[in-house]
Amino acid sequence: MKYTRLALSLFAVGLLAACSSAPKTADQSAAVEDRSSGASSSGVDGNRVVAVDANAANGAGLAALKDPKSILSKRSVLFDYDSYVVKDQYRSLIEAHAKFLVANPKMKMLIQGNTDERGSREYNLALGQKRADAVKKALSLLGVTEAQLESVSLGEEKPSCGDASEACWSANRRGDMLYSGEF
């Protein structure tokens, strides 16, 4: 448990360190936001996140979140066996969702913690909650308000794969991020 807290602390420090960046050199490319026109767009344009109307009747805000070309369409953070530590490979995914939520303060997110079928029902519910809370904490550290986030555990009740194999169990150990209107 002591090492898990240390790992979470190190991950949080890593996320904060990732927010700062060294100056780009001439050979490195960086996305530049074009603010020359007065018109505002909605959704995601490459790496740029802009505000959308969460209450739009036509669902344009949610449609932008489902664009397969966008990192925001990816909604699952996978975990190792018997672990609730968010892996470094999901840093950019969490950062993108955090930027979107910060830019859209009316949007809310439900994080569902899931486990594979191994373990008791009680253990899996507790582990699923820890996984959901780990994703919630990572988003909070990046500036998302507490009022925008909710975490729940589904335990083993909502598997994404039903086979009894390691590949399937691995896919079931996840935290799913759902936006307003999707839950």
Task: Please tell me about this protein's structure.
The model is unreliable at 20-48 and 53-59 (pLDDT under 50). The chain has helices at 2-19, 60-65, 91-103, 121-141, 166-172, and strands spanning 43-45, 48-50, 76-78, 109-114, 149-155, 174-179. The protein is of the alpha+beta class and 183 residues long. The protein has one domain (2-16, 46-179): OmpA-like domain (60s Ribosomal Protein L30, Chain: A, 2-Layer Sandwich). A four-stranded mixed sheet has the order 3-6-4-5. Helices cover 36% and strands 15% of the residues. It has five helices and six strands.
List the helices and strands and how they pair.
Blueprint: H1 2-19, E1 43-45, E2 48-50, H2 60-65, E3 76-78, H3 91-103, E4 109-114, H4 121-141, E5 149-155, H5 166-172, E6 174-179
Parallel strand pairs: 4-5
Antiparallel strand pairs: 1-2, 3-6, 4-6
- Quickly give the structural class: alpha+beta
CATH class: Alpha Beta
**Spatial strand sequence of the major β-sheet:** 3-6-4-5
Radius of gyration: 18 Å
Number of domains: 1
**What's the name of the CATH homologous superfamily?**
OmpA-like domain
Major sheet: 4 strands, mixed
Gross morphology is: globular
Helix content: 25-40%
Order of helices and strands: HEEHEHEHEHE
Distance separating the two termini: 32 Å
Tell me which CATH architecture applies here. Answer: 2-Layer Sandwich
- Give the uncertain stretches in residue-range form: 20-48, 53-59
Per DSSP E runs of 2 or more residues, the count of β-strands stands at 6
Quaternary state, please?
A: single chain
CATH topology: 60s Ribosomal Protein L30, Chain: A
In percent terms, what proportion of residues is strand? 15-25%
Q: How many individual helices?
A: 5
